[in-house]
Specification:
By secondary structure, this protein is mainly alpha-helical. It is built from 8 helices and 4 strands; from the N terminus they run ααββααααββαα. A hairpin with a 4-residue loop joins strand 1 and strand 2.
Length: about 210
Amino acid sequence: MNDTRKQLPRNVGNGLNCSSCHIAGGTQANAGPYVGLTALFPMYNARDGRVISLQTRINDCFERSMNGHPLAWDAKEMNAMLMYIRWLSTGVPVGSQVAGRGMGQVDPSLKPDRARGATIYVAKCASCHGLQGAGTPDGSGGYVFPPVWGKQSYNTGAGMARTETAAAFIKSKMPMGQPDSLSDQDAIDVADYVAHQPRPVFAGGKPDAQAKRR
C-alpha cells in the first residue's frame, strides 16, 4: 500500500502509491481509510452502476488513480491487499458505519472559482506539489509528495479528478500538517483548479458517470 509503484511496476502507470490518497496505509479518517471495508463488500457502486467486489474496487484504483492495469484476482499481491484490509477491519460488524469513512465532506452548494483556486494553489500547495503539479521527486524514481496533474498523476477516471471528492480530501487533510485550515470555499476553488489541469485520459471509456468537474 505504501510502496505500490516500486512493488507493482507492471500495474502502476504513474508516480503514485495507494497511500498517496489512502494516507498512512489507509488508517487515517477522511482519507479513504480501509478500516471496515471488508464488511461492506460486495456493494453497489454508483459510478459503475452495478454491484462490485472488493477486488473490483481495488482494480478500479489501479486503472484510474494509478493509470495502470488491474491485478489478477488470484494474484498473491491481490490476496496480500485483501488480507491487509481484512486485518484492519477485524471486529467491525457487517453494515456498521465507521467514523471517518471516505474523504470527508464540503458544502456541495458552493460554486467554484477556478481563478481564485489557482491563487490558493500557488500559496498553499505548490511548495509540495510543484507549480506545475509535478510533485516532489524523492531521487529514486518516486515522489515525496505526489504529482496532482500531468503524466505521472491520476487519470480523468479517478475519484480525485472530481471537484467535490478532491475538495473534501483537501479540506480535511491539506496542506500536510494543517488539516481543516482551509474553508470549504477554499477547498472547492483549489480542487476545481487542479481538476481542470492536463492529465491522462481514462482508457476504460467515459471518465466518470457522476463526475462533477464543472
